[in-house]
Amino acid sequence: MLSKKQITSQIKRLFLKRQPLNISAVKRSHPQLIESAYAQTPFWGWRATLEDSDVEYSSINTELLDYVTCNICGQRMKALGGLHLEYRHNIQPSEYVTEFPEAEMRSEVQRAYKPKAKLIMPHWEPLATPEYILDRVAYFHSQGIEVNQRNILLNEPSLMRSAMLLIGSWDDILVKISLDPKDIRHSVPDGTYSKDHIISTLQRLHSEGHDLTCSNLKLAAGTTTLFARSAREFGSYNQALKAAGIDPVLYSPYALFDKTLKRFDRRMKAAIKRPPDRREKAFIRIRKEFGNVISARYAGSWNHVLEAYQVGKE
């Protein structure tokens, strides 16, 4: 393994030669450099490595391959699909991935980040790699951003998806970047979920106006286990809500849709009273916000909505 001094020296030399220094490019050309940087303890990572080499990330050259190589025949193509594998090699894509677990099915260009994703901060690497995921989480933590699962799921869900796909559990990621998962995750101080704690947590979340439906509980609670523990301790989640003095009907999908429907009705009636020019702008906002209502109650047709409210067709 290279020392930190050897690593930074090589990076400076490569930078002066204008060699690409994004992670995937260096993994191809200088794998020992990447391996050594990520083997350092405590966690160092590629971003910190470049900074310690006096190299700004924004100034590096990057390289993305526009092809993948078939590990069976060596043919290069933009994407490795079932047509090539089945007809050329008589093998299913799932079998190919099992035999070559490190193989990619799409080129780096195709896998590069798209600009529309919800992000905590802009990407500094062009595509997801296990190393970049570790770097990104470590940098978030160094900037005071919470790196528990709830915060990442809420604010950068694409990072969580990539992390689960490329690395595994979130705790594994935290350990790899020299963090103790117990210090990061939101958990009960004694590590257990008593009935009293569950009741008080549900009551607090309810009073704060959180959505306590089953599908949203994990995010609202800031913990990935409250729903499961509620069901285990009380027999069902609805029984836990009742024990907390909360009517389960309030958080049934039907009740929530009914609330949404009433809000939609109020917004439509208010929009209709506006002058024509302002009315159209209000209608645009309503169509964006209440697509589920329009789809469920009006067969997805805005004209049906206008007819129901006697506004006339567009």
Features:
mainly alpha, 5 domains, two-stranded antiparallel ribbon, 2 strands, extended
Characterise the protein shown here.
This protein has 314 residues and is mainly alpha-helical. It has 5 domains: 4-59, no CATH class; 68-109, no CATH class; 116-184, no CATH class; 195-251, no CATH class; 253-308, no CATH class. 57% of the residues lie in helices and 1% in strands. It has helices spanning 4-16, 23-29, 31-39, 45-52, 82-89, 93-99, 108-111, 130-142, 149-155, 157-166, 170-176, 181-184, 195-207, 217-221, 226-234, 237-243, 253-272, 276-289, 291-297, 302-308, and strands at residues 68-69, 76-77. Strands 1-2 form a two-stranded antiparallel sheet. The longest helix is centred in the last third of the chain and has 20 residues, at 253-272. The termini are far apart.
Order of helices and strands: HHHHEEHHHHHHHHHHHHHHHH
The N- to C-terminal Cα distance equals: 69 Å
Q: Major β-sheet, in short?
A: 2 strands, antiparallel
Helix and strand composition category: mainly alpha
User: Strand content of the residues, in percent?
Assistant: under 5%
Q: Tell the overall outline.
A: extended
Oligomer: single chain
- The chain-level mean pLDDT equals 87
Our Rg estimate from Cα atoms comes to: 26 Å
Number of domains: 5
Low-confidence stretches: none
Helix content: 55-70%
Q: Main sheet: which strands, in order across?
A: 1-2
